[in-house]
Amino acid sequence: MRFLIDFFPIALFVGAYKLGDIYTATAVLMAATVVQTGIIYAVDRKLQTMQKATLALILIFGALTLALHDERFIKWKPTVLYASMAIVLAAALWIWKKNFLQILLGSQLTLPEAVWARLTVIWVAYFGFMASINAYVAANYSTEDWVNFKLWGYIFPVVFIVGQGLYIARYLKSDNEPGAGS
To answer: Whole-model pTM?
Structure first.
């Protein structure tokens, strides 16, 4: 269910682009993201930092796209988001000696400190990769190609989530194990 909630703004964006243009699609994306955020808040009674940042950037870059009638803003929004997340996680880990990933997810997962540190480095690399690939496609391909990439490029987060799950699974204790959950 969560996958559908996460995916529907992109699906609506692509559909609106195919039926209209980038500006119609941008307006639809903005509205769909507001609805998505509302649904997430209604279910979880809170919003994660990433959800807040995504909403803010979509509304800001979407408004700039529409107001200035310049599609570059919405095309570069993912690069800004992913690069910002990579920089924040990296700076927190290596400069401020704080593991934001552990702070955000530590109440849900019990993992050794070294695993949290490696997991954060993996997230930094993933966000760096996503920022780079979006920048490459946005700069070197047509808007049509970029929109198609937004749809079919959704495989990257799916592969990342599955890979991350496989990586941390060996460190999680089962509920039947003595001392599980501690």
So the answer is: 0.86
